[in-house]
Each structure stands twice: as C-alpha cells, then as structure tokens.
Amino acid sequence: MKVLCGIDVLEIERMRKAVVRSPALVERIFCPLEISYADAHKDPIPYLAARFCAKEAVMKLLGSGIGVISFREVEVVRTPSRRPKVELSGRAAIVAEELGVTSIDLSISHSHSVAVATAVAMVQG
C-alpha cells in the first residue's frame, strides 16, 4: 500500500470577499448538500472555506490542479457519526480509480480566521 496526502489552508476573509464579489461562486464550487450544511450555521463562510480546503486537498492528492477536476466532482459529506467524508464523481472518480485509490480520509478544521483540511488516501499497488 502507498499513501497520498494533500493539504490546503485558506483565510476565511478571502472566501468571504470572493463570495461577496461573486455570489454565484458558491453554486459553481459547492454541491447542494455542502451549501445546506453551511447555511445551517449563523455564519456559513467558515464552513464553506473549510469545505473548499477539503476539495483542494483532495485535488492535490490526486495530482490534479484546478481545471482538470471540477470542484463539484469532489463533495464533502458527513457520515452518520458526523465525520467528514469525500464522495468523488466524474473526472475525480476516474483519476482516483486510475491511481488505485481505495479510500480517502479527511480532516477539516477552522478558527475565526483560517480554514484548513488534510486529505489522506490509501493507494493499492
């Protein structure tokens, strides 16, 4: 087995400014369940920023930059135990399969000013 890792960090204020400047950005980047989850909080921006970081971390571990994989092909969902989990579709799922990825674990966090996520994948072969 081999391990792939990706990490991303983002200033929450940068995400806030991007959303204010272009509100349509939210629906271009995030899936409906991600938006609903964030909107359930008083301030959704930190939760969107954390999920953006998770998407970026997964793209990095897959070796794909922006444009190769769509942000909406990497969806952050929650397990019944409330743990974050990634679901891949489209090109993201194809790249993961080509790499031999058997599982991806996520860790997501944010403070009042910064969001961060780490993605770790197990690869067969």
UniProtKB/TrEMBL annotation:
Chain residues that bind Mg(2+): 8, 56
Reaction(s) catalysed by this chain's protein: apo-[ACP] + CoA = holo-[ACP] + adenosine 3',5'-bisphosphate + H(+)
GO MF, one annotated term: holo-[acyl-carrier-protein] synthase activity
Cofactor(s) needed by this chain: Mg(2+)
Name assigned to this protein: Holo-[acyl-carrier-protein] synthase
Keywords, comma-separated and alphabetical: Cytoplasm, Fatty acid biosynthesis, Fatty acid metabolism, Lipid biosynthesis, Lipid metabolism, Magnesium, Metal-binding, Transferase
Similarity comment: family membership: Belongs to the P-Pant transferase superfamily. AcpS family.
Native source organism of the sequence: Ferrithrix thermotolerans DSM 19514
